[in-house]
Amino acid sequence: MQDNNLIDYGPLTGLIGTWTGNKGKDLAPEPDGTEYNDYYETIIFTEAHDVANAEEENISALHYIQKVQRITNDKVIHQETGYWMWEQGTDNVIHSMTIPRGICVLAGGKASQSVDTVLDVVADVDSQDWPIAQTAFLQKKAKMKTYTQQMIISGDTLSYKQNMLLDIYGRTFDHSDENTLTKVS
């Protein structure tokens, strides 16, 4: 590992710092329909390190924590932690995350950079390359089948959209979240 000041984080560099936003929109399943939540959140990205896998693949990693709260009552409705990783010298990005409901996602995709940096990743419960792992209970009662996420970094603005296709309450439901955040430090 190198000194973090010498590590190239490539397309992830703009994420480093603390982000807050209060324009979040959550579309979530309920037994009798759909729940709509407005939310605010904080995401903190910190430099983690770089690693060499099998002495061939060089990866730079950022660790993050995310806390999401409902605007109407400040109730925490989502928390996650994980890593955003970049395979150095390529446009490949990896997002690994854990949600304290018994779900782990390893999503992969591409980064593109022009004026903005765009990170697009996907995972699928049936994928060997980019899988979704979940508890036995969730597999039977609230199975996440697919996960897609797009993040756009534009200076001190971060926006994202993510979708989780769920089998829940006897139906398929497209659970979605989106927000725009501002870098505060």
Please outline what is shown here:
With 185 residues, the chain is mainly beta. Helices cover 3% and strands 70% of the residues.
Layout: helices, strands, pairs:
Blueprint: E1 17-30, E2 33-53, E3 57-70, E4 76-87, E5 92-99, E6 103-113, E7 117-124, E8 132-134, H1 136-141, E9 142-154, E10 157-168, E11 171-183
* CATH homologous superfamily (4th level) name: Calycin beta-barrel core domain
Distance between the termini: 25 Å
Strand order of the largest sheet: 1-2-3-4-5-6-7-9-10-11
| Unreliable parts | none
Q: Judging from the principal axes of the Cα atoms, what is the shape?
A: globular
Number of strands: 11
- Report the mean per-residue pLDDT as an integer: 96
Top-tier CATH class? Mainly Beta
**Percent of residues in beta strands:** over 45%
SSE-based structural type:
mainly beta
- Helical content class: under 10%
CATH architecture: Beta Barrel
List the domain count as a whole number. Answer: 1
Number of helices: 1
H and E string? EEEEEEEEHEEE
